[in-house]
Amino acid sequence: MQGRLIVIAIGGNSLIEDPKKVTVDAQYRAAEKTAHHIASLIEKGNRVVIVHGNGPQVGYILLRSEYARKILHAVPLDSCVADTQGAIGYQLQKALDNEFMMRGIRCSAVTVVTQVEVDPSDPSFSDPTKPIGSFMTEAEAREHSENFGWAVKEDAGRGWRRVVPSPKPKRIVELDTIRYLSESGAAVIAAGGGGIPVIIGDDGTYYGKEAVIDKDLAAAILAKSLDADAFIISTAVEKVCLDYRKPTERAIDTMTIAEAEEYTAQGQFAPGSMLPKIEALVDYVKSTGRMGIITDPEHISDAVEGLSGTRIIP
């Protein structure tokens, strides 16, 4: 199957439209909406590889584990990531396949449980920064910190969240399989949640690490490794804004790499929120000379055509 290859990273929060309704069925309904927009790209002849976030979903698993710790074993973070890759992958896969059937598109979706190699000496293991789980008030965050030993931080003015180690991704272990499936014409869901963090031991075998990899940085590595024609990060906003949530807030249509780096140096982008998205896109554009885009799910197709979103260019 020919056509442009587009890697799309979607946030775990994009599957939660109402924080008061976070049931599996509610998340699937949100997945259907995202699948609708992605299917429009495929209908135009593009190939897609989808990377999804899992912050809220991993948080739910960990919270259940904490409440059940007197009667059940704990679930390590790497296993939580694997669990969410399967569950969210299933939701997106089913939603995409249904969309393909309704549109008469000859395509199938497939999910790859994906491991991503990290450095065991990555500094994040001693300084957790990655937000996971749902937003909390400061009082709730302090309570969970005291009761469960969570590390908590305020997240870009949106509330408090648990933070965990987030090492930089080095290599996609299942890259060849993902490439084969994509070249065969499948819509591939891979590196969910940034991938399952693994290290390589002295004997050459893989070992899981308790961490969560930033899905945007993992998606950038995947986009570069697959030689993708474009890399899209789908998030909660249509466009990147400078002076976010200030009276001087303004949206950006296009940024060069130099401009993006200057805005980053000015502290325009919040760590754990917009900053890793900008860093991931800048890394991809620098390496490939191709187009990077940030937008929300409903504007994905328009953004590829230059009608919406924020584009990062060389």
Provide an overview of this structure.
The protein is of the alpha/beta class. It has one domain: Carbamate kinase (3-Layer(aba) Sandwich). It is built from nine helices and 17 strands. It has helices spanning 24-43, 55-67, 77-103, 138-148, 175-183, 215-225, 257-265, 275-288, 300-304, and strands spanning 5-10, 47-52, 109-112, 115-118, 130-136, 151-154, 160-164, 169-172, 187-190, 196-200, 206-208, 230-234, 241-242, 250-251, 254-256, 291-295, 310-313. The strands form four sheets. An eight-stranded mixed beta sheet has the order 3-9-2-1-12-16-17-15, with helices on both faces. Strand 6 and strand 7 form a beta hairpin. The longest helix is centred in the N-terminal third of the chain and has 27 residues, at 77-103.
- For the record, the count of structural domains works out to 1
**Average predicted local confidence, pLDDT:** 92
Computed structural class = alpha/beta
CATH architecture: 3-Layer(aba) Sandwich
CATH topology: Carbamate kinase
How would the blueprint of this fold be written?
Blueprint: E1 5-10, H1 24-43, E2 47-52, H2 55-67, H3 77-103, E3 109-112, E4 115-118, E5 130-136, H4 138-148, E6 151-154, E7 160-164, E8 169-172, H5 175-183, E9 187-190, E10 196-200, E11 206-208, H6 215-225, E12 230-234, E13 241-242, E14 250-251, E15 254-256, H7 257-265, H8 275-288, E16 291-295, H9 300-304, E17 310-313
Parallel strand pairs: 1-2, 1-12, 2-9, 3-9, 4-10, 12-16, 15-17
Antiparallel strand pairs: 4-8, 5-7, 6-7, 10-11, 13-14, 16-17
Helix pairs in contact: 1-3, 2-3, 6-8, 7-8
